[in-house]
Amino acid sequence: MTSTVPPTRAHHKARALKPGRPRPAKELCSECGLCDTHYIHYVKEACAFLNQQFPDLEAQTHGRSRDLESEDDWYFGVHEEMFAARKREPIAGAQWTGIVSTIACEMLTQGQVEGVVCVQNQPRDRFQPMPIIARTPEEILAARVNKPTLSPNLSVLEQVEQSGMKRLLVIGVGCQIQALRAVEKELGLEKLYVLGTPCVDNVTRAGLQKFLETTSKSPETVVHYEFMQDFRVHFKHEDGSIETVPFFGLNTKELKDVFAPSCLSCFDYVNGLADLVVGYMGAPFGWQWLVVRNERGRELLASARDQLEMQPVNSQGDRHQAVQQSIPAYEAGVTLPMWAARLMGVIIEKIGPKGLEYARFSIDSHFTRNYLYVQRQHPEKLAAHVPEFAKRIVGQYKLPENQ
After folding, report:
1. Domain assignment of residue 19, yes or no
2. 191 domain-assigned
3. Assuming Cys at both sites, which of 133, 191, 291, 336 could form a disulfide with 277, CB separation 3.0 to 4.6 Å?
């Protein structure tokens, strides 16, 4: 279970969320936290679900937007380098080997930043997020392990302003970082670093509970989970045991409605506006996938590079047929018997896409699903909301007729 530390004077946490606060994005609100601050005045321009502005924000952040002639840019965004990496000495209790936590701690202890926006958990609920501005390595380490629920990370932005700090590291996911980049110039910072994680299919706390109860044999003891490259969901339990459930055995009919509408409308799986992205889906099993997008990303990586074992990324297989077949299967809510699901998982793990091709498989699968969601639920937003790179990805596949 993720550890926590008691609040201190240097420990800034998000204020309690107020019932009835404005929701300009309405049902598409991703709970990023911007609207819990006075920066709500910028929400019409800043919110990823009210104003899709990828090309402008990419140019502002990286010095250029995606090259639409480059398929790698379609998928992975503006980038300079990609690696697979893992820590030589993993952090105990980390979800993987602790690369994100290590970089954040090093940036703080080396004096490159004065604070780190990260997410601890509520003392009574390991999956309920509690955004903070960490001022010590201990506070950063207390935030290790992903929280798969919607999290108001940006709710601490007013505290950043009031603190007077000038050099900040923010750890976050795509919708949060899009809003952050849109108001970045208003924060009065001398240097902002963004360490991002890929993100897809977050849920409300109630939705998470339904997922756990529907999928795991012991939902009350799950510490964390991840959808992995071996086509299985890996649940880690309090006793250290790992439970795996094949993708093809998930109760799709029960779970189709569990994901947040904002996640079903998102096309920023790879966190294209972060400086450095640390995930898993483009790396071999047991390794992390690192995407360096710009000079600040190089600085983030350099802070901990001597603690990492690194290797080049690779790519193997062909995703297209698997993605095309998954579209009608998801639409119909197909669930295989568990024995068949496990067998299918073993076969696909051996012959299916790996490395960057697995990453493309995952992106294709989610983008086609999300395109259909927006087309059906918010047709008036389709043309403006779906970025051009996502349209090109989706355009590789035959989609069902609009219903």
Report:
1. yes
2. yes
3. 291
